[in-house]
Amino acid sequence: MAQAALSAAGLHFDELNKLRVLDPEAAQQTAQLREECGAFLDKIAEFQKIVGSLIELVDQLAKAAESEKMKAIGARNLLKSIAKQREAQEQQLQALIAEKKMQLERYQIEYETLCKIEADQNEFIDQFIFQK
Q: What sections of the sequence does the record tag as coiled-coil (predicted)?
């Protein structure tokens, strides 16, 4: 009965017969909740560590992918540049070929002209020699 009167007043005895303000069952639940919270906090810390390492790994992969992307863009631009240089070089060579063909034509005409002049001069020389 004394225990009931103390309980009504909000005082309780625990398993060691110490006087407590809190109900022993509530105290046990509170201790259990404290342990569960501690375990939860440990799991959260471990989760944060795992997520942090995952984020680092993803950042490294993103940097590597970006680097490879830049290399590929550089290689593509270089290839385009080389193709344009070859086109320009081909055009220059085509122009040079056309110029050389025109020069060959001029030389052929000049050669034919010189051959006619030589033939005329030889004919003149022959006529001059026969007249003497």
A: 79-110
Distance CA 92, CA 82 (A): 15
Q: Where are the domains of the chain?
A: 2-131
What are the percentages of helix, strand and coil residues in the chain, rounded to 5? 85, 5, 10
* CA-CA-CA-CA torsion sign (80, 84, 89, 90): positive
Q: Which run of H or of E encompasses 19? A: strand 19-20
* Tokens (6 digits) for 45: 């810390």
pLDDT tens digits, 55-98:
999 999 999 999 999 999 999 999 999 999 999 999 999 999 99
Give the SS3 label for residue 62: helix
